[in-house]
């Protein structure tokens, strides 16, 4: 599904942030992406999100080389990728329901069509009672669950998560990773979850990708 | 009413507005567009008033020609006047002709020579007023030719006056159009700056929309919706203010001048009544300003997104 071959990334004329990355991700798999701060986790996620192009090497996603894609094709491929951020990035003026429904609105679906799906998903992530609340009234855990729901509502093939547990307590972190695991198990979604919380990784047996100084030192 | 109008604006999927209302520098831009619409509508109304007066004046003057008979030694003025009237009445396209009496001539000269003038003591040219049934069909050339038989007779078609009037009216219309163009350019520039400012202050929303797979076209459409709404409100307020302005100026002109003076000013410069065409012209400012706002913001947004993507 995703293949990196000798991929390097630099910003402008700066040094290489990522070097010689070669790995493949199978459909339906779950990977932890870990490493110390500044190791290049976010840059790698941005490559996977197709918001950056590699400086060298070859990236293949869904069977296509992404280096020469047109803007339209890039947009279509990006719609197969969901993203969850550490800082949630919910739109403050929209309710939980409206935030989660956003990807479907972008796809042009009318509210009558998406309302049942969004409601069902919100109930599934435990936000059924908070559908009409603005993000400012949600707790950290609720915000992150809303962000996860928004990332998966359009049924992407790949779900990327950049430090999704960074702003919640350890107990909630574990529950959030269980939620990702559930999505992976029930929907068959490929998940790459970036975190630097090693105790959290130890609770799960998923393969790890360890980045250090821009290089992939472990990929089990 | 504005809220009702806004409800007709297109919304994707019927959900809440993705670009929040308050974030688009709404009040300042609304005020600016209202002022621009008001200036556009007043300019347009002024042009309509001038043009209508010029057309009416030109039409009135064009329906009349004047035969002037200068005193010539050995010629009998009264006889020449009768001949001129007869020649004029026999000309195709002429509705009526009459010679001004001495008393009427005295009244015409009164503003310059004072009251109590006795024209019998002075030899002054006499006039024959010729009313045309249809200025386009009247045989003016034939009449000029025939008047050659009367010594001292000449025909004044007021062509020079009409030409000057039309030139003046044309200049006013062109000036008005130039002012409208400048207002349009100023409006576009203000919207460009406001849109770029709105895009920069809503960068977070733009980024999130990009991450969830929104196209630049979709994002531009969302911003365009907000600006269309502001443009529509500003255009409507400006146009209403302009209609009110013309109504107040018309009332003030009627009250300040006496009845007779008001009538004379009305004949010379036209009334401050816009008429249905003037009102329609001002009403047209509303959709034009709204469309200008929407198109400008969409183009600016797409350019901004293309630059930053």
From TrEMBL, chain A:
Part of the ABC transporter FtsEX involved in cellular division. Important for assembly or stability of the septal ring. It is found in: Cell inner membrane; Cell membrane. Belongs to the ABC transporter superfamily. SUPFAM superfamilies: P-loop containing nucleoside triphosphate hydrolases. InterPro entries: AAA+_ATPase, ABC_transporter-like_ATP-bd, ABC_transporter-like_CS, ABC_transpr_LolD-like, Cell_div_FtsE, P-loop_NTPase. It comes from Devosia limi DSM 17137. Keywords: ATP-binding, Cell cycle, Cell division, Cell membrane, Membrane, Nucleotide-binding. Homodimer. Forms a membrane-associated complex with FtsX. GO terms for molecular function: ATP binding; ATP hydrolysis activity; transmembrane transporter activity. GO terms for biological process: cell division. This is Cell division ATP-binding protein FtsE. Residues 2-218 form the ABC transporter domain. GO terms for cellular component: plasma membrane. Its main location: membrane. It is a peripheral membrane protein. It comes from the Bacteria.
UniProtKB/TrEMBL annotation, chain B:
One of its GO terms (biological process) is cell division. This is Cell division protein FtsX. GO terms for cellular component: cell division site; membrane. Keywords: Cell cycle, Cell division, Membrane, Transmembrane, Transmembrane helix. PANTHER family: CELL DIVISION PROTEIN FTSX. It comes from Devosia limi DSM 17137. InterPro entries: FtsX (IPR004513). The lineage of its organism: Bacteria, Pseudomonadati, Pseudomonadota, Alphaproteobacteria, Hyphomicrobiales. The chain crosses the membrane at residues 29-50, 171-194, 227-252, 272-295.
């Amino acid at each position: 599904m995703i293949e990196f071959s000798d991929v390097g990334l630099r910003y402008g004329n700066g040094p290489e942030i990522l070097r010689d990355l070669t790995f493949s991700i199978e459909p339906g798999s779950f990977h932890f992406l870990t490493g110390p701060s500044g190791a290049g986790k976010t840059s790698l996620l941005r490559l996977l999100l197709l918001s950056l192009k590699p400086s060298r090497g070859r990236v293949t996603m869904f069977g296509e080389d992404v280096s020469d894609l047109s803007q339209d094709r890039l947009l279509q491929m990006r719609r197969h990728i969901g993203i969850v951020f550490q800082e949630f990035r919910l739109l403050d003026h929209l309710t939980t329901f409206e935030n989660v429904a956003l990807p479907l609105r972008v796809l042009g679906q009318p509210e009558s069509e998406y309302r049942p799906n969004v409601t069902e998903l919100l109930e599934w992530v435990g936000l059924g009672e908070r559908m009409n609340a603005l993000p400012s009234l949600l707790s950290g855990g609720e915000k992150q669950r809303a962000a996860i729901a928004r990332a998966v509502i359009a049924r992407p093939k790949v779900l990327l998560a950049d430090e999704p547990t960074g702003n919640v307590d350890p107990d909630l972190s574990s529950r959030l990773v269980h939620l990702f695991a559930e999505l992976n198990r029930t929907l068959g979604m490929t998940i790459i979850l970036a975190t630097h919380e090693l105790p959290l990784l130890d609770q799960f047996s998923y393969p790890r990708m360890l980045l250090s100084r821009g290089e992939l030192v472990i990929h089990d | 009413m504005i809220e009702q109008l806004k409800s007709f604006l297109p919304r994707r999927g019927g959900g809440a507005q993705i670009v929040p209302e308050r974030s688009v520098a709404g009040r300042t831009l609304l005020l600016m567009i209202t002022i621009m619409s008001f200036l556009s509508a007043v300019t347009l109304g002024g042009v309509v008033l001038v043009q209508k007066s010029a057309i009416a004046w030109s039409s009135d003057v064009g329906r009349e020609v004047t035969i002037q008979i200068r005193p010539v030694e050995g010629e009998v003025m009264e006889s020449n006047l009768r001949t001129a009237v007869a020649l004029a009445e026999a000309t195709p396209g002429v509705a009526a002709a009459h010679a001004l009496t001495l008393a009427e001539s005295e009244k015409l000269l009164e503003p310059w020579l004072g009251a109590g003038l006795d024209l019998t003591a002075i030899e002054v040219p006499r006039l024959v007023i010729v009313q045309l049934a249809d200025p386009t069909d009247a045989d003016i050339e034939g009449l000029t030719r025939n008047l050659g038989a009367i010594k001292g007779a000449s025909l004044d078609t007021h062509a020079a006056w009409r030409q000057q009037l039309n030139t003046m009216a044309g200049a006013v219309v062109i000036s008005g159009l130039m002012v409208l163009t400048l207002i349009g350019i100023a409006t576009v520039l203000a919207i460009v700056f406001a849109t770029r400012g709105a895009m920069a202050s809503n960068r977070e929303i733009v980024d999130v929309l990009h991450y969830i797979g929104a196209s630049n076209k979709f994002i531009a459409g969302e911003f365009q919706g907000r600006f269309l709404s502001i443009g529509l409100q500003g255009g409507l307020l400006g146009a209403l203010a302009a209609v009110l302005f013309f109504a107040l100026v018309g009332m003030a002109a009627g009250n300040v001048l006496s009845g007779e003076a008001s009538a004379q000013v009305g004949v010379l410069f036209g009334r401050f009544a816009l008429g249905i065409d003037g009102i329609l012209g001002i009403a047209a400012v509303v959709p034009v300003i709204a469309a200008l706002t929407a198109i400008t913001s969409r183009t600016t947004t797409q350019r901004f997104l293309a630059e930053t993507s």
